[in-house]
Design a protein that fits this description.
Number of helices: 1
Number of strands: 23
Oligomer: single chain
Shape: elongated
Order of helices and strands: HEEEEEEEEEEEEEEEEEEEEEEE
CATH architecture of the largest domain: Sandwich
Structural class: mainly beta
CATH superfamily of the largest domain: Immunoglobulins
Helix content: under 10%
Radius of gyration: 30 Å
Strand content: over 45%
Distance between the termini: 97 Å
């Protein structure tokens, strides 16, 4: 078993000879190893010793194509596409995750035993799932850590070599929004007076705001694009009231973060209250 980057550096003759021998060993063994060669080239061979599958690198140098699965005990081979069970990918959930270990459910068909799952970036980088659980023939749950923001393809390979890669980049890795405005009071308004305050959340994409629960004082509304809460108070309260509400910030990737705020309605003797 040997692998090589096929780059011979300037060095002493003994080192050069050793480097050449290592490269030749990699060639004659079809770059055999339990993991993919670190440096890959279009049309490169790789014998996957973990699964006994002979593979060849595709022309775009962004995926491996299975040639066949070898039975080293019986000295037989099953060519890919002849008896292999080809899985399909219908959807994933969630479609957006952060740069931390995340669980993703893959829905499709023909998931045999425990398939191998790869997450492939648009630049061709391959990240293996931390774990794969076969929930059923139509559902897998994977745990994966993707440190780089971007969009990713999903590739599922059954133990018999049958494999599929999603036609589209189904998964987006992005930072979830975070609140800049502290929770709690964002101000007070006198009865019948105008009010304006702005709540702010940040993200790597556009933010929209929504009222998740609770209520504003009557006459005051939320601008869902800017986070401005404004208006003229027009309620019927006759005593000081604290309005508690939860706002949600949602980014383009539908990632959300919630925060609780309050507005206090102040009512004084000059605001229509009569004492007898």
């Amino acid at each position: 078993m040997a692998q090589h980057d096929y780059i011979i550096n300037n060095q002493t003759f003994p080192s050069t000879r050793s480097d050449l021998n290592n490269g030749l060993s990699a060639i004659v063994s079809n770059n055999s190893g339990s993991s993919s060669p670190t440096t890959t080239y279009a049309y490169q061979w790789w014998y996957d010793t973990s699964n006994n599958i002979l593979k060849i690198r595709n022309a775009d140098n962004d995926a491996w194509i299975n040639i066949g699965t070898f039975n080293q005990t019986n000295d037989t081979v099953v060519l890919a596409g002849t008896e292999a069970t080809l899985p399909t990918i219908t959807s994933i959930a969630p479609q957006s995750v952060e740069n931390t270990a995340s669980n993703i459910v893959i829905t499709g068909t023909n998931f045999v035993i425990t398939p191998n799952v790869e997450i492939i970036s648009t630049t061709g980088a391959i990240i293996l799932a931390n774990s794969v659980t076969r929930d059923s023939a139509t559902q897998l749950t994977i745990n994966v850590t993707l440190p780089v923001d971007g969009t990713y393809f999903i590739r599922v390979e059954n133990p018999d070599g049958g494999a599929v890669r999603s036609s589209n980049a189904l998964l987006t890795v992005s930072d979830a929004p975070t609140w800049t405005t502290a929770s709690g009071s964002i101000g007070s308004v006198s009865k019948g007076a105008t009010f304006s305050a702005t709540v702010v959340a940040s993200s790597d994409s556009a933010i929209t705001y929504s009222l998740l629960s609770g209520a504003f004082p009557t006459g005051i509304t939320l601008n869902t694009s800017t986070g401005v809460i404004s208006g003229t108070e027009s309620g019927s309260q006759t005593a000081e009231t604290v309005f508690t509400f939860t706002l949600r910030a949602t980014d383009v990737e539908t990632q959300t973060v919630d925060r609780v705020f309050t507005i206090t309605l102040s009512v004084g003797i000059n605001n229509g209250i009569q004492f007898n």
